[in-house]
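Handout, section B. The chain below has 273 residues.
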Amino acid sequence: MAYEQLIFDVVENIAVLRMNRPSKKNAFSPTMSNEILDAMKRIENDDGIRGVLLTGVEDSFSAGLDLDLSFCQTMEEGNPTNFRKVMNPILDWYQKYYNLPKPTVAAVNGHCYGGGVVPVSLSDVAVASSNSKYALSEINFAHFPAGGTTWAASHFLLPKHFEYLCLSGDRIDAEEAYRMGLVTKVVPHEKLEEESWRIVKRLAGKHPNAYATAKAMCRMTPKMSFAEAIKLEMAHIHENYFMTEGEMVKVALQQFKNKQIKTGTGEDYKRES
């Protein structure tokens, strides 16, 4: 299916999504948001797709919400129905992306501002081009980072870091974003796609059920006490055993004991054992 403002490809079982509004620095329009949401539903329901690589075209990842086209217009109208039509697709695809049990990697190729920071924060891994720039600039026009933006920053940065971004509106470079913890690593711009592809393929090679469980634990246990986390993790040991048909014990640990360590899917274990 062809999209108007999103380039969607599946390459070697990886869904590659390229936000495609270069004249607007890939800002989210209602059309783009609906297209990403549709793509996320396809990815969610296709077991053959093992991971997602999200990036933008040309010199931008995303400048966030397109204020001229959507937000300001609906605010001025004072029509809550039209406002929700603009906002719901964005918020819906954010949530689907965050909750996706498959690997998600953001390749941040350039400008990344406002709501564009959200998918960077929500990705399992964010690889930053050395040319990329970041800002939560909403306070500069009498607003604040909303629509999940404050949450995304506050959950993955130290308090003084995310408060600085939210309260100053200042722009930071890739190295500063790495120091703050907003991105996983910084690579030379010309190496961005290569390194992002290497990482998403590596993550997609893990057992899909084991990956989904590990990802859920990474998201849930920081909110718990140590005792609560232990109980939850112990319960999921049994779920993971069931979902992987016992491969951890029957195959993977046996290979480990025999110094025949394999990485990848259950199918790889069975084929190579």
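Note. The chain has two domains: 6-204, 208-272. Compare this with the example in section A.
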